[in-house]
């Protein structure tokens, strides 16, 4: 009898131990699932927000945006710009005090378009598979940066917020702060309607006498 009683006690202890282990495992699964759901929800919340100017700068430069120079706009940006219509862009390289400088060598600068999504997306081709920017997309400079001919092949209404981020930045260097123009709007190209043809009245004094004779006959 004692042997049977001891066996029952051992089995009871084993069942209790297994029950506790199952409960602990279940709790861990619940905690893990809760964290996963929270992470997915946070990600969705972030993606619902549009990219701001500060977020775009952080996206381009990283968390450490320490620049010795920056790009300063020296020409007007069309607002709005029009699809497939040429425009130009001029920028000066300036120091931290806004004074124009001449660097010791030329650097390559490129112009790009980003979406307002979070995170932003670099646009390479339009919805038709054509390059979204044509013309002068890269240029060298050490004091002034001139993009003489820029053509955008897409309207911004197809994208988030109905606008782009227009970005100009130096290639392969990080001591020149990029130029970022938010809310760059590109509309469909304007079409000019033909002017209606005007009908000119002929004065009686200007009529040819021969015409009057022919009418009398």
Write up this protein.
The chain is an alpha+beta fold and 217 residues long. It has two domains: 1-28; 53-187, Immunoglobulin-like (Sandwich), CATH 2.60.40.10. 29% of the residues lie in helices and 26% in strands. It has helices at 2-48, 53-61, 209-216; strands at 69-73, 81-82, 87-95, 107-114, 133-135, 138-141, 144-152, 164-170, 176-177, 179-184, 186-187. Strands 5-7-3-1-9 form a five-stranded mixed sheet, with no helix packed on it. Strands 6-4-8-10 form a four-stranded antiparallel sheet, with helices on one face. Strands 2-11 form a two-stranded parallel ribbon. The longest helix has 47 residues, at 2-48. It is elongated and about 100 Å long. Mean pLDDT is 82; it is low at 35-46 and 197-202.
Average pLDDT, rounded to a whole number, is 82
Oligomer: single chain
Q: Categorize the overall geometry.
A: elongated
- Structural classification: alpha+beta
The CATH topology assignment of the largest domain is Immunoglobulin-like
The residue fraction in helices comes out at 25-40%
Number of strands: 11
Number of helices: 3
Strand % is 25-35%
CATH class of the largest domain: Mainly Beta
Instruction: Provide the succession of SSEs.
Output: HHEEEEEEEEEEEH
What can be said about the biggest beta sheet?
5 strands, mixed
Q: How many structural domains? A: 2
Which architecture of the largest domain does the CATH hierarchy give at level 2?
Answer: Sandwich
CATH superfamily of the largest domain: Immunoglobulins
Question: N-to-C terminal Cα separation, in Å?
Answer: 149 Å
Outline the low-pLDDT stretches: 35-46, 197-202
Could you tell me the radius of gyration in angstroms?
35 Å
**For the largest beta sheet, what order do the strands appear in spatially?**
5-7-3-1-9
């Amino acid at each position: 009898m004692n042997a049977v009683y001891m066996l029952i006690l051992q089995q009871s202890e084993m069942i209790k131990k297994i029950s506790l282990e199952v409960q602990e495992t279940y709790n861990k699964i619940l905690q893990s699932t809760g964290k996963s759901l929270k992470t997915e929800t946070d990600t969705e919340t972030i993606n619902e927000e549009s990219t701001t100017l500060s977020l775009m700068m952080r996206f381009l430069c990283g968390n450490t945006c320490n620049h010795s120079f920056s790009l300063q706009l020296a020409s007007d940006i069309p607002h709005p710009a029009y699809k497939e219509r040429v425009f130009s862009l001029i920028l000066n390289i300036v120091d931290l005090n806004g004074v124009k400088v001449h660097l010791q060598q030329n650097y390559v600068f490129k112009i790009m378009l980003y979406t307002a999504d979070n995170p932003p997306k670099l646009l390479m081709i339009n919805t038709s598979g054509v390059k979204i920017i044509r013309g002068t997309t890269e240029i060298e400079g050490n004091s002034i940066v001139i993009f003489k001919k820029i053509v955008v092949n897409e309207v911004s209404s197809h994208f988030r917020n109905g606008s782009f981020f227009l970005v100009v930045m130096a290639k392969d260097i990080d001591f020149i702060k990029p130029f970022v123009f938010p809310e760059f709007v590109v509309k469909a190209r304007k079409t000019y309607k033909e002017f209606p043809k005007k009908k000119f009245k002929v004065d009686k004094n200007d009529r040819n006498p021969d015409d009057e004779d022919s009418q009398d006959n």
